[in-house]
Inverse folding.
């Protein structure tokens, strides 16, 4: 089985910073890409940022210039540096991985999700 575990969430005042981490573990052969999504109360889950195994990054417009995704996919790890945080950034942040794993005599490529970490921005 494969697990994704996030850490680094918490409470911060507007304008502050947080750094989220996510590590995948289990029967992983390779990771094609990882990313961060978030879900605020009353809203649908939305993309925040992604990074590929070739280190190509993609950001949604509302975090460009404030958030930075990085990681070492060969080590199954991705980070999200969040600066200049706003109250609208309050949400549960989820790690996602597009990876190839093995088990039950087969190799499978699929998406996995972490359980999420809460980020609260308020004064």
């Amino acid at each position: 089985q494969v697990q994704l575990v996030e850490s680094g969430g918490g409470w911060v005042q507007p304008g502050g910073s947080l750094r989220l981490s996510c590590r995948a573990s289990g029967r992983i052969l390779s990771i094609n890409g990882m990313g961060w999504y978030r879900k605020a109360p009353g809203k649908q889950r939305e993309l925040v940022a992604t990074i590929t195994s070739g280190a190509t990054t993609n950001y949604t417009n509302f975090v460009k210039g404030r958030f930075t995704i990085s990681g070492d996919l060969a080590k199954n790890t991705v980070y999200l540096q969040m600066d200049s945080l706003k109250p609208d950034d309050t949400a549960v942040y989820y790690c996602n991985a597009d990876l190839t794993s093995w088990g039950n005599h087969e190799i499978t490529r699929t998406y996995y999700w972490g359980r999420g970490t809460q980020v609260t921005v308020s004064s």
